[in-house]
Every structure is written in C-alpha cells, then in structure tokens.
C-alpha cells in the first residue's frame, strides 16, 4: 500500500490531467452531439494546434499562454474551413463516409507534419514549467493547475455560448431537429461548420495549456484521441457535462492504474473501460441517447 | 460458381505470377511482396467491411494475432512454420469470432463498431508489448532457416508466388461471396439489417461468419508478414498502420468487389512509391497521398477504381450501341 499523501497526490494529479482530457473530449462531444459524427481527425488537429503554439514560441518567443489569442481563432478558422469545404461536401451526408473522410484528414495532417518536422520530439523551455504550489503537505504543478482552472472557465464560456446567444440557440436547434431548423431559416451547413470550428478551437486552448508541460511530435495528438473517445463514450456521446465528469474520472483512473501497474499498463485500464462501456452501456453513464 | 465466373480473376492472377520472371529487380520484388501482403490483409477487411458493411478500424487485432501465433509457436515452442500458418488462421478466426460475438451481440454498428474494434486492437497491442511470451517490447525474431518446410525461401520469387497463392485463394473466395447465398445474405445485412432480419436472415450468424472469415484472411497476411521479415513486435503487428492500410485499399480499389482490395493496394502503393521517388527522402509524404486518395475516392468515386472502370466500360458500350 502507498502512504496517504501519495494516494492523494495521485488523485489530484489525475484530476488535473483529467481536466485537460475533458477539454479535448468537450470538442469531440460537441461535434458528435450536433453533427452526429465521430471526428477521427480530432487528434491530428490537436497536434496541429500544438505545433502552432510551438512555432509561435520558437520563432517569435510567444509565451504559450499568450498564444491563446492567435491560436484559438486560427484553430476555429481551420475547423470551420475543414468541415465546410472538405468533410461536408466529400461525405455526401453518409455516416460511414464522414468517419472515413475524417480518418483520411487525420492521415494527411499527421503525415504532412511528419514530412515537415520529422519525428523529432520538441518541447518548450519556459521558466515556470516546474513551478509548484504548496497545498498542505502536497506540491502541485502550477501549469497543471492553470490547465484545470482554464478548463472550468472554457466549459463555462461554452455553456454561456450555447445557452445565451443566438448562434448557440441555432446550434442546439440543429442538434435537435435539423430539418426544422432549416425550415425556420437556419443555414445548417454554416452551423455545422461553426460547431466543428468551436470543437477545434477547444483544441487550440488545450494546446496552449499542454505545451508548457508536454512535448509535441507529429503523433502526440494520437496519444490523447483514444482517451478522448473513451471519455466521450463514457460520458454519453454528445453530453457536455458527461464529457467533463468522464474526463476527470478517466484522469483519476489513469493516474491510479499507472501508480499500481506501471506506466505501460496504465493505459490498459482506459481501454478496458472503453470496451466495457461500449459493449454494455453504449449510451454512456450520463447520456440519454443510445 | 462455374469456371467462367472466375476466368478474369484467374487471368489476372496468372499475369501477376509471371511478373517476377520478367527480370524485375530485387527491390521491386520486395515492394511487390509487401504490397501483396497488404492486399491480403485488405481482402480480409473487404469481406466484413465491403460485403458486410461493418467498418472495422482495428483489423490490426487479426493481423497481429496471426503474426504472433506463428512466431510464438516457432520461437517459444519450436514448432514448424506450416503448423504455425495453420494456427494463425485458427487463432485469427477465434479472435474474430470473440470480438464479433461481443460487439454484434451488443448491437454495435457504424462508428460504434469502428471504435470498439480500434480499442480491441489497442488492448492487444499494449498486452503484447508488456507480456513475456510475446517477447515484450523487444519483439520476436524467427530464426533464419531457408527451406520449404520452414516457409522461408532463398529465392524471393518463391515467396512471392506463395503470397500470391493466398491472395488468389482470397480473390476466389471474394468472387464466391459475389455469387453465393451467404454473400447475398451478407450484402442484405449491409444494405438493410432490419429488412434482412425480417426476411429470415439470421443476421448475427451471417455477421459472425463474415468476421471469422475476414479475420482468418487478415491473420494469414500477418503470418506471411512475420514469415517474410522474420521479426515482429507489438507496434508492427498490432499497429494502427495495418488497420488503416487494410481499409484504404478496398475503399480506393472498389469496396465490396472481389478485385477492389488487390487493385487498390497496387494502385495506392504504386502512387506512394512514385511520390517517394519524386519527393526524395521525406517520410510521410506517401501517406499524405494515401489520405488524399481516400478522401477523393469517397468524394468522387464511391465504388473506387473498380466502379470507375465499370462506368467507363458501360458508357463505351452504350456509345457503341447508340451508333
């Protein structure tokens, strides 16, 4: 058995990692909830965002947290364009096609990055990467705490956007009843692209929060994407609170299974949960829709 | 199914069989063998994904199980390579049945099925990477002992013909699916599962049969991979690369057709090699082209190269009749 402090620290670290996971899953679940598509390019788009942050730092010394200002709108534009002019037209509205088009996109993005940047792993050297905040007997990493706090802020903003703005109402209308939304004059293709853009903008936020504590190479988004799928399925596809709770839960599970089984088997727990949920409760723990 | 049904297929196989005897270089032969191994994996995918409409994103689970089955038997237990080959097929079919039973019983389809197969492949990859009898992260090395009884050949052309033989069997099997009652049931499940069920098709059994056959073919491809390179590790055997390759080739070549996976694999890798030649040593560019081909095929050629060819032939004969 481990002493209580280590268990507590694993719990808090798990929650902080889980918050970042939740933010990745938030984008995925939003896209699923409105467009009813599973976006396989989510991981590759995250990698793109991370390279943007890295590029900003390496070229002009842009601090990753300041990089939020250009990266988030850029990612929104990228997501909007990709859905509006690639995924939408290419898939002819068939579910299996959408799945394959996003898979094709992820192959293209990942390997284009590989061709440009090779498979070298890159990190940012910031002077606050190893700062810690003492909380009682525990020391918590400052960048991770910032990440967790930012996740809560972004979730709040997203809730406001969806519930208090016209665009948000249009998004929810399209999610509920596409044809009806079209009949009252909502441009469904535009709303689809906006939703996709919001999903990728979330990835822009994630990239800025991750870069101080994580590395980037052309495959690093893939590390997160399966975890994000697990969270989305666990939380119920399309459910925003589900993604948040699922993310925190998965973060804790990962943290504890790494503690007890070592790093290499740590991820196994996640996939086993993934498979069990898919097989026995595909609507998720918090989702209503099957 | 009569001889006439498979005549074009036999002709195509014969044409491929003479290629290595036309004085092709060693690297070209290597390339062709690699493409045929991928094509075989893709033919397996096409049985379930193409004819059955169940898109698996985790055929690596079957490829890897086939590769590990033969490698473990040979390296850890000292059994022969031919027994290993038989074991690969059986293990592949069993893994397929197990995954299929769990997923289809739970009613998973569409993107849910894609996700669960992906997760199964990942679980197997992590386990194979950590377990002892799989050689862990170091992988397994099969001893080099050229000889027919060891399924290793000093002359690469013989290995080429062996792989082509299995590709041929899979091609004829796919052709049989196009003509048989079982194949018709499978297509009925793809087009409308509820309607097929209402008409008395035992859809669960049909899907299970399809995934077992599909998995066995892909496992055979994994076995041949291990036999050719004489080395596997978890990231190769259960890696996502083969799951992606296995679905790319049929979609580009012509999904749900007998020729599709083979034509697709040849075309894709031909274009991929050309890209590599033109672009120099940059890694990843060939895969960028693959991804582009996938999106273009879905956008403009839903029946792939086979569908395009059929359309051209049709319009030509229509023009002739018009005259």
Automatic annotation (TrEMBL), chain A:
One of its GO terms (cellular component) is plasma membrane. It is a multi-pass membrane protein. It comes from the Bacteria. Its main location: membrane. One of its GO terms (molecular function) is transmembrane transporter activity. The keyword Membrane applies. One of its GO terms (biological process) is amino acid transport. Keywords: Amino-acid transport, Cell membrane, Membrane, Transmembrane, Transmembrane helix, Transport. Pfam families: BPD_transp_2. It is found in: Cell membrane. The chain crosses the membrane at residues 12-34, 40-60, 67-86, 98-117, 138-162, 191-216, 223-252, 258-280. Belongs to the binding-protein-dependent transport system permease family. LivHM subfamily. This is Branched-chain amino acid ABC transporter permease. It comes from Neoroseomonas soli.
Automatic annotation (TrEMBL), chain B:
It comes from the Bacteria. It is a multi-pass membrane protein. Coiled coil: none annotated. InterPro entries: ABC_transp_permease (IPR001851), LivM-like (IPR043428). It is found in: Cell membrane. The chain crosses the membrane at residues 6-24, 31-51, 57-75, 82-106, 159-177, 208-232, 244-268, 288-313. Its main location: membrane. Keywords: Cell membrane, Membrane, Transmembrane, Transmembrane helix. One of its GO terms (molecular function) is branched-chain amino acid transmembrane transporter activity. One of its GO terms (cellular component) is plasma membrane. PANTHER family: HIGH-AFFINITY BRANCHED-CHAIN AMINO ACID TRANSPORT PROTEIN BRAE, HIGH-AFFINITY BRANCHED-CHAIN AMINO ACID TRANSPORT SYSTEM PERMEASE. This is Branched-chain amino acid ABC transporter permease. It comes from Neoroseomonas soli.
């Amino acid at each position: 058995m481990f002493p209580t402090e280590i268990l507590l620290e694993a719990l808090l670290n798990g929650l902080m990692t889980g918050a970042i996971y939740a933010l990745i899953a938030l984008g995925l679940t939003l896209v699923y909830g409105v467009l009813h598509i599973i976006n396989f390019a989510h991981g590759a788009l995250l990698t793109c965002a991370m390279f943007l942050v890295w590029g900003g730092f390496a070229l002009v010394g842009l601090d990753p947290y300041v990089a939020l200002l250009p990266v988030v709108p850029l990612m929104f534009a990228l997501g909007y364009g990709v859905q509006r002019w690639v995924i939408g037209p290419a898939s002819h509205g068939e579910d299996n096609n959408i799945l394959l088009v996003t898979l094709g996109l992820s192959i293209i993005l990942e390997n284009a990055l590989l061709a440009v940047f090779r498979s070298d792993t890159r990190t940012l050297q910031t002077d606050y990467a190893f700062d810690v905040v003492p909380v009682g007997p525990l020391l918590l990493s400052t960048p991770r705490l910032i990440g967790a706090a930012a996740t809560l802020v972004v979730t709040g903003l997203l809730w406001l956007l969806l519930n208090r703005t016209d665009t948000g109402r249009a998004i929810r209308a399209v999610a509920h009843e596409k044809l009806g939304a079209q009949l009252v004059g909502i441009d469904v293709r535009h709303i689809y692209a906006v939703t996709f853009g919001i999903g990728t903008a979330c990835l822009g936020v994630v990239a800025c929060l991750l870069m101080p504590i994580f590395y980037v190479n052309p495959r690093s988004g893939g590390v997160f994407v399966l975890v994000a799928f697990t969270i989305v399925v666990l939380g119920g596809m399309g459910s925003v609170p589900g993604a948040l709770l699922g993310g925190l839960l998965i973060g804790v599970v990962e943290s504890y299974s790494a503690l007890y089984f070592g790093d290499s088997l740590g991820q196994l727990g996640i996939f086993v949960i993934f498979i069990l949920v898919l097989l026995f409760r595909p609507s998720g723990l918090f989702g209503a829709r099957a | 199914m009569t001889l006439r049904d498979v005549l074009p297929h036999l002709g195509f196989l014969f044409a491929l069989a003479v290629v290595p005897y036309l004085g092709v270089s060693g690297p070209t032969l290597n390339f062709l063998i690699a493409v045929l191994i991928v094509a075989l994996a893709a033919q397996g995918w096409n049985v379930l994904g193409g004819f059955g409409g169940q898109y698996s994103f985790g055929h690596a689970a079957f490829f890897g199980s086939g590769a590990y089955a033969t490698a473990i038997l040979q390296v850890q237990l000292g059994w022969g390579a031919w027994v290993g080959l038989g074991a690969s097929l059986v293990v592949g079919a069993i893994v397929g049945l197990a995954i299929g039973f769990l997923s289809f019983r739970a009613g998973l389809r569409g993107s849910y099925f894609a996700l669960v197969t992906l997760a199964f492949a990942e679980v197997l990859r992590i386990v194979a990477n950590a377990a002892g009898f799989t050689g862990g992260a170091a992988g397994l090395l099969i001893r080099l002992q050229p000889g027919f009884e060891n399924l290793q050949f000093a002359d690469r052309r013989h290995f080429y013909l062996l792989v082509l033989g299995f590709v041929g069997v899979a091609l004829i099997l796919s052709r049989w699916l196009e003509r048989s009652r079982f194949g018709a049931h499978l297509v009925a499940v793809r087009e409308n599962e509820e309607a097929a069920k209402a008409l008395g098709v035992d859809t669960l059994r049909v899907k299970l049969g399809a995934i077992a056959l599909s998995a066995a073919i892909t496992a055979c491809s994994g076995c041949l991979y291990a036999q050719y390179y004489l080395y596997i590790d978890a990231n190769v055997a259960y890696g996502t690369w083969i799951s992606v390759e296995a679905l790319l080739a049929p979609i580009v070549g012509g999904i749900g057709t007998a020729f599709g996976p083979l034509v697709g694999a040849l075309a894709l890798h031909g274009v991929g090699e050309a890209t590599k030649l033109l672009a120099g040593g940059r890694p990843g560019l060939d895969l960028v082209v693959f991804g582009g081909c996938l999106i273009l095929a879905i956008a403009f050629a839903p029946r792939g190269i086979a569908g395009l060819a059929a359309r051209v032939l049709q319009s030509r004969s229509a023009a002739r009749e018009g005259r």
